[in-house]
Design a protein that fits this description.
- A hairpin with an 8-residue loop joins strand 20 (about 285-290) and strand 21.
- The protein has helices at about 70-80, 125-135, 135-145, 155-160, 170-215, 320-330, 345-350, 360-405, and strands at about 5, 15, 20-25, 30-35, 45-50, 55, 60, 70, 90, 100, 110, 115-120, 160-165, 220-225, 230-235, 240, 245-250, 265, 270-275, 285-290, 300, 305, 310-315, 355.
- It is elongated, with a radius of gyration of 27 Å.
- By secondary structure, it is α+β, with helices and mostly antiparallel strands.
- The N and C termini lie close together (about 10 Å).
- It is built from 8 helices and 24 strands.
């Protein structure tokens, strides 16, 4: 017999089972709070102060160097009784929408980027988590996000989110149990793919480093480079500061408004950040990210582009692709200065010592070899990334189908 369905009244939810309702979150929870809005001194040994960066769909992740605060400050933050075991934690700033069920017996202090939802007795916390993870809810969040310096969801907006709601708590639990099992299998496959991708990326980087520091001919005499991290190099090569065979200059400033229109890529402190209707660098120019978490990343322009003042533009008389690989092997991110904002300078790049093949023909052979082999590795990586995206989309579809009742768990049919 076909399942009886009815309109939910919400486009992004669609039809739901006739014995379900579409309910606002405020009607399925008893309370909601967010983390502290205060500023607290950090201490070397105290209690944890976590944030949205610690909240993931599979639980809370605590690193080795998390912020710690005094016992007194910790007690003042958790004095409102949040969070406690079985609350649902929702990221309201940063990666908005990530959520998990709080599994600890003791409260941990959080910053305001995390909201705590306390389910009613008739609401299964794990079902509520999946309902909040569903695309049917994430779409609503995008409409409700407060557009400010940092996107965020207000508590009032969270209360107004509408979720599909089975009135039977046993059905909620059955759905949550089913999704726990299915999602665990999907997450295991995804984790394996991520590991494979990481290993391939490491292999690609090690291949580049080995080739540009040792060369292609393993039979040539070697000598000590005098640089510990480089080790031995071919006898006819030099250990040389890069300023002797390349020059580095900053790009030109551009406003965010100018990024909204144009056909030429714009590069700043990392990857492409938009488009502009003018260019200041030609095709096949090497750019280095100068500012930000990705400072030191190396890019080759494949079309005329615009390099902002957060990028460094490289000029060289050497084979440009050889220099590109040489810069990758130099791991320039290690040069970033210990400021609040990661930063590298052209002077630091220029003073970096590398293993240098003086002969242009040899540079070309190295570049051609790495082009061929890196392309093969990259093609495998792209294939793995497509598989990973497919499995992630399958997980999203599975959650959506079961929390909206498009598919029912057999135990409750």
């Amino acid at each position: 017999m076909a399942e009886q369905m009815k309109p939910s009244g919400i486009d992004w939810i669609g039809n739901i089972p006739s014995d379900w309702n579409a309910k606002k979150v405020k009607y399925v929870i008893s309370d909601i709070k967010d983390g502290t809005h205060g500023t607290f001194d950090r201490v070397e040994s105290g209690e944890l102060l976590l944030s949205a960066k610690n909240v993931f769909d599979d639980g809370i992740r605590i690193g080795e160097n998390e912020s710690e605060i005094s016992i007194l400050d910790y007690k003042s933050i958790i004095s409102n009784g949040f969070p406690k075991k079985n609350d649902v934690l929702l990221c309201c700033v940063g990666t908005i929408g990530r959520c998990c069920v709080y599994e600890y017996d003791q409260s941990i202090a959080f910053q305001r980027s995390v909201a705590f939802l306390r389910p009613l007795q008739q609401t299964n916390a794990r079902y509520l988590k999946y309902a909040l993870q569903s695309d049917s809810t994430l779409i609503q969040e995008q409409f409700l996000i407060n557009k400010s310096a940092q996107d965020g969801l207000y508590m009032g907006s969270v209360r107004e989110l509408i979720i599909p709601y089975p009135n039977s708590k046993s059905e909620q639990q059955a759905i949550a149990d089913f999704l726990d099992k299915e999602c665990a299998q999907i997450d295991s496959i995804a984790a394996d793919l991520e590991k494979q991708i990481d290993l391939l990326q490491q292999y690609k980087k090690s291949l580049i480093t080995e080739t540009v520091t040792k060369g292609l001919d393993k039979s040539v005499p070697m000598k000590d480079s005098g640089v510990e991290w480089i080790g031995e190099i071919p006898d006819h090569w030099d250990a040389k500061r890069m300023k002797y065979f390349l020059s580095v200059s900053s790009g030109d400033a551009i406003t965010n408004e100018q990024l909204e229109d144009g056909k030429y890529p714009v590069y700043g402190g990392g990857k492409q950040m938009g488009c502009f209707n003018r260019t200041n660098v030609d095709k096949n120019k090497i750019l280095i990210g100068r500012v930000g978490a990705n400072c030191g990343c190396v890019t080759i322009t494949d079309v005329p582009s615009w390099a902002t003042d957060n990028a460094l533009v490289v000029q060289t008389y050497c084979h440009f692709k050889y220099i590109y690989y040489l810069l990758i092997s130099a791991d320039l991110n290690r040069l970033n200065e210990a400021n609040a904002q990661p930063l590298i300078t052209g002077a630091k790049v220029g003073n970096c010592v590398v293993s240098f093949a003086k002969n242009h023909a040899e540079q070309e052979r190295i570049a051609r070899y790495l082009d061929e082999h890196c392309e093969k590795i990259e093609n495998i990586i792209v294939g793995k990334q497509k598989q990973l995206e497919t499995i992630r989309q399958h997980k999203k579809s599975l959650i959506y189908e079961y929390v909206t009742g498009k598919k029912r768990v057999k135990e409750v049919q």
